[in-house]
Amino acid sequence: MSGTLDRTKLLAARYRAAIDRPYLATALFSITVVESARVPTMGVDRRWRCYVSPAFVARTPVPELAAVWIHEVAHLLRDHHGRATRLPPGTGDDHYRVNVAQDCEINDDLVADRLPLPADRVEPRTYGLRAGLVFEKYLQLLPKEVRSVDCGSGAHGVDRPWEHDDPGGVSDVEAEAIRRDTARQLRSRGDVPGGWRRWADQLLESKVDWRRQLAGAVREAVAWASGAVDYAYQRPSRRSAALRGVILPSLRRPVPRVAIVVDTSGSMGEPELAAALAEVAAVLRVVGVGGNRTTVLACDAAVQVTRSVYSAADVQLAGGGGTDLRVGVAEALRSRPHVVIVLTDGFTPWPDAPLERTRLIAGLIGAQAPEPPGWITAVRVDPTLQ
Amino acid sequence: MSALDGADALIAATRAHRTEPSADPRVEALALAVSANLPVLLWGEPGIGKSATLQQLATGLGLPMETVIASVHEPSDFAGLPIVGDSPATDGVPMAPPDWAVRLARTGSGLVFFDELSSAPPAVQAALLRVVLERRVGSLQLPDPVRVVAAANPPTSAADGWHLAPPLANRFVHLQWTHDPRTVARGLAGTWPAVTVPTVRPERARTSLARARGALAGFLTARPGLTHHLPEDAESRGGAWPSPRTWEMVLRLLTFHYSARTSTSALALAVAGAVGPGAGMEFVSYLENLDLPDPERVLADPSAFELPGRGDRQLAFLTAVIAAVQAEATRPRWEAGWVVLQKAVDAGVPDVAARAAADLAALREPQWPVPATVDAFIDVLSLSGRLPG
Ligand SMILES: [Zn+2]
C-alpha cells in the first residue's frame, strides 16, 4: 500500500508526544520530516531528519505513532550514531545488530514509561536480558541471531539508501546544544523516568570514566616527575664539537620510579582492584615506566609483602580491618619513588602533609570511600561506570 | 630521462589533489581562531590531514607557513642557542634563533605549525610553549601577525597521550581534529574539502566589537558561576575551561564571527574550544535566544518578521509571542498573534504552534471573531487526543 503522507496525523502524534513529555518538545520539534516510500517504517539520519513511510503512518494509530516519535528522538538524543562510530573495531560491523542493541537501550525505558510501542518492538526482555544497560553492553550480550531493525544512520551510523546527502538539518554542534538543553529541562522536573534522568545526569555532569581519570592522574604525575630535569647545559653535547662558539645542551631525561601501594584489607572488591591495577599497569607501560622502575606493596596493618613485579593475581586480599596506609607509604618511600599510587577503600589515616619530592595519587575503590586530604590526587574507581 | 624522473613525476601526481567547497565547521572554526590570532591546539591522532589543511589555510590567508616537527627537535631549537663571542663578560651571551624563526621575523607574518608537540621531551615542550605564550624565540621576538598552531595526541591515545598543565591549557583554543572516514576516503581519491578563509569586513569592526562585548557581559551577568570554573579531573583541566582569560578569547572570536559572518557551528566549536564544551554550548544557546525576534516588535507588525528556521527555536519564539499577548490581551494584539501562528502553518509545522494556538484561543473575548487560521490547528489538536477542554 502506498499513497501520500498523512502529515496531519504524523504531526498530531508528534504534538501528543511533546505535550505528554514536555522535556522532549525541544528535541522533537527540531526534527525535520521527510516523506519516503523506501524507509520501512520511520528512521532518522545524523542530521535529525526523520524519514517516514506513508503506509506506516496510515496503519499506525496516533498513540503508537507518538511512542515511535519518542523512540526516534531517543536515538538522536543519546547520540547513538556518534557512539556507534566509537565502538571497538570489529564489534560494530553488523549495523542491524547495533540497531537492535540500541533499541534495547531505548525501549526498556519507554515500556516502563507505559508508552504503547508497536507490538514488533525489540526490548531487552525479547532476548532474556535485564533492563537498564547501555547499548554497547547489549551488543556484547545479544544472541548470535537477532532481528534486523533499521532506524537509519541517526541510530547505527551507516548511510541508508533513502537518506539525503545534503547538509541541511541539525549540525553536530546544534545537536549537542539540543541535548544539553533537553537534559537541563529533564533535571528540573520530578516526573521523569529513571533512564532519562540517568542520561541527563551523565551528560550534564560529564562524568568522566574513572579509567581515563586514573590514567590522566598517573600520566600527569609521571610527566611532572620526568620533566623535573631533562635537558641541561652541564655536560657538553656531542653536537658541540661541530659548531664553534655554540654551547649545546645535552639530554638527561630520568625515567621516574613509581611505587604502588595496595590496601589489602577492608571492603574492596577483587574485580575493582584488579581493574584498577590493570589500568595503572597499562598507563605506566605506555609512558615508558617499566616493571624494573615499579615497586608494588601489599599493605594492611603491617606491610606484609613487597614485590617488584605486579599483577592483579599476585595481590592477596586479606580482608579484616585495621589498615594504616601511612605504614605502606613510608615503606614505599624507601625506594625513593617520584610517584606513589595508593589503591584503597579509603578507610585509613593519611600522611599529615604533602610529601617532599613525591606525588601521591589515591585510587578510591568502593562508593563509600571517604575523601582523602586535598593535596592527594584522588580518583574514584566506580564499578558502575564500565 | 633518467629512471627517477618517471618516479618523481608519478609521486607528484599522487600528491596533486582538487578541492571542493565544504561546510566542515571544524575547518571553519580553525580558520576563525587562526584569523583572530589566538593560539590553537589541535588534538588528534597523527597523520589525519592537519598539515594539508593548514597549508590551505595559510595560502588562503596569504601567509607563508613554517612547519616544525617538535618531536625531532631539541629545546635549543626553540629557546635559541647560546653563542659565546670574544668577550662574553662584556657582550653577554646572545641566544641565536633558529632559521624558521628568523624567516618569520624577516617576513613579518606567517603561520607556524608545531606538529607532534606531545611526542617531544618535556624540556622541548616547555621551550616551545614559551614560543607560543611569550612569542619569543631566543633573543628574537616573533612579529604580532604571526599565527601559531600546535598539534598533540589526545590523552586517551595509546601512542603518547599527553597532559597539558592547566595554566597552559588555558592559553589555547583546543580543537578536536578527527576526520570523518568518508572525508579521508574522498581525499585519497583526489578531492579534499576546501578551506574557506573568513573575510573580516573593516566597516563592521566597531559594531561587531560592541555587540560581542554586550553579549558576553549579558551572559556572564546571568551565569556568573561560569566566569571561572576549574574542572575537577586532570584530563579536563588539560583542555578548555572557563576563566577570565578564555572568555577574553571568546570576545575576540565573537567579534570576528560578527564581522566575518562565519557560521554558528564554527563559532560554537571555537568557543567550546576556548571555554570548554559545557560553558561554550550554554553561551551559544544564549546567543541564539538573543537573536530571536522581539515579540513586541513582531506583534506591532506581524507581517514583517521571519520565523526561525529550526523547530526548537520556533517553539521558543512562539511561546514568547503568546506570553506577550497574555500579558496584555487586546484585540489587535490577539489578532496579530494569529498572523504569527499562521507562519508556522505555512512552514508545514502546525504541531510546533498547536500549543500556542490553544493558549491564544483561550484568550478570546466573545465578541472577537474567530480567525480562519484556527482550522489548521483544530485537526492536529483533535487527532492528537490532547485537545484542551
Ligand atoms: Zn530504533
TrEMBL record, chain A:
VWA-like domain location: 258-375
Domain Putative metallopeptidase span(s) in chain numbering: 8-252
Gene3D superfamilies in the cross-refs: von Willebrand factor, type A domain (3.40.50.410)
Entries under InterPro entries matching the protein: Put_metallopeptidase_dom (IPR025154), VWA-like_dom (IPR018698), vWFA_dom_sf (IPR036465)
Name of the protein: Metal-dependent peptidase
From TrEMBL, chain B:
Pfam families linked to this entry: AAA_5
Tree of life domain: Bacteria
Family matches, as SMART domains: AAA (SM00382)
One term of GO molecular function: ATP binding
AAA+ ATPase domain boundaries: 36-182
Protein name from the UniProt record: ATPase AAA
Higher taxonomy: Bacteria, Bacillati, Actinomycetota, Actinomycetes, Micromonosporales
